[in-house]
Amino acid sequence: MNGRTLFFRRLFDYYKYQFKVLHAVIDWTVALYIVLPAIAFVIYQYIDLMNGRGLLYEWSEVAEWRWLYAVCGLIMFTGSIRTFLMEADKVFLLQKKEIIYQLKRYALLYSFLVTMAKWLLLFFIVLPLISHSVHITFAESTALLCYLFGLHIFFLSLKQDRIRKPRSISRWIGDILVRAIFFAGSAILIVLTQWHLLALFGILFLLFSVIRSLKKTASFTAFEAEVTEEKKSRLALAGLVMMMSQEAGMPKVKDRMRRKPLLYRNSKRIFKRRTICTGYKELFFKVMLRNGEYARQMYMLLSAFTVLIFVSPIWLKVIALLVYTGVCRYILTLIFDKVMDAPFLIGADKESDEYYRARKNCINILHYAFAACCFLAAAVSLLFT
Amino acid sequence: MTNLLEASIEQAGYTSRKKVLTDVFLEVRKGELVGLIGANGAGKSTAIKAILGLSEDFKGHIAWNDCSFAYIPEHPSFYEELTLWEHLDLISTLHGIEEREFAHRAQSLLQTFSLDHVKHELPVTFSKGMQQKLMLIQAFLSKPDMYVIDEPFIGLDPISTKRFVDMLKAEKERGAGILMCTHVLDTAEKICDRFYMIEKGSLFLQGTLKDIQDKTGLEGQSLLDCFYKAVQGDRP
């Protein structure tokens, strides 16, 4: 067995797993009645748009092409440099280092190809749509494609660096600043620079990142971190699916690089008073603040209802607001019970008045905060009605 | 001596179809260290789960005679979102330990188990041994009347093992009852007052080391030899 065979075997396994995840959610009835009609509708609208009519055409007339910046920005945040490493490799394959090198090199090439595919897809789908509002030549669009692809690969190589280092607030802020500077610089460059210069910058980004990534591929110093990232990539789709379900939960991938929490460092308390009630509250709020999955769950629910409230007529806004308050409370209750159900609290008295007081307080505080956000969205949306 | 725990397990298991444990009766008295011994899969952990009320399918009666208890699980269990110190703070708050007393006890235990330098870090990033030490510290922190301990020695370094054993002895002196399930028979032999031996889900031998030696006919022999003879008979 060589690295190439191993890479293709793992790639096949990866897609097989993702297919199984999708298959678990989309059975033939869902595919027949929801997914296929939705795809047909989108294709129909796209053809209409190409012919200068239809809903999307009207919308694109209003929105023009500036939204493309946001889409490009979002794409830049996706992806990672894959390795297809597994935990067991350190036992079985690390003795045959050449196989691992080869595997990682193929995985690197695969990551570049996937990134390239994203940009090509965006360009082939989007460029015809905006051609009526933006006049762009073939050379200009190719240069833009080249630049965005190069920049994206550069970001991925930075991410490859980041997973090797422990998380800290300063690194986090630094990362955001670097991205913000590159985004702003890119916007200026795209608007002001000649196309051949743009292409040159893109190629330079690409070359720089490829050399860096190849060096990293030849090293084993971040083996554990790479395995962790690989697990996260594999479980990303499954995690997204599970997020829709309140009952099911994904096993968390343990991040061994993480040392100290970002908020309330050095075990600082939220509540100064130490009572049984504040003990439970402290636990719940710290879990909510530090567990990305719960925070994301609440954020997604809020976003979905906010969008619904914005686009609905007034009578539906009221109903959506009421439904949100009910669903939000239900989910907060589920999360609280799940947190307190952990084996670490075996022996704690969960029938006491303090426990029930803490439960009520925690749920109320977050419930009111989230409901206030949704209410604010409803109030703001009234201004646009 | 007063019984802190009286467990009468008629049956316990994970589904109603498959019983892992049948007819096990055990008790732990004040100031007594009791060892629960058995081969892999004999039903020791199931017995502990039944005692803690965590068994899916349980028939019987568990009497905690008004005593507080702490549990040290075989596999460390903690909140991934809390630091080591926050875990200890949580446990002590729930047990109503005053802040000054908590800080003193926690600091002393952290130093005993050499975890002082990582007290503000997340245990999820610790090694297995360090996570196991967190389990020991959280149990000792609240000074309960009774300890339920499942395989405590796995992953512990020799220094920590020695300190843990010393602390168990001290807690026994204080009057705490301890039920400890372990495979490390040479250590168990030195520190346990009595033993319960489980095989294939049933209690087959119990008593002090002397009683067990007498019952197996291996006078003066080690607990390991007695256990081997009791389980394997005269087979090599």
How would you describe this structure to a colleague?
The complex is a heterodimer of chains A (385) and B (236). Chain A is 75% helix and 0% strand. With 385 residues, chain A is an all-alpha fold. Chain A has two domains: 3-237, no CATH class; 265-383, no CATH class. The termini of chain A are far apart. Chain B has two domains: 3-67 and 145-232, P-loop containing nucleotide triphosphate hydrolases (Rossmann fold), CATH 3.40.50.300; 83-144. Chain B has a six-stranded mixed β-sheet with strand order 5-6-7-3-8-9, with helices on both faces. In chain B, strands 2-1-4 form a three-stranded antiparallel β-sheet, with helices on one face. The model of chain B has no long low-confidence stretch (mean pLDDT 88).
Features:
heterodimer, A: about 375 residues, mainly alpha, 2 domains, 14 helices, about 75% helix, B: about 240 residues, alpha/beta, Rossmann fold, six-stranded mixed sheet, 8 helices, 9 strands, globular
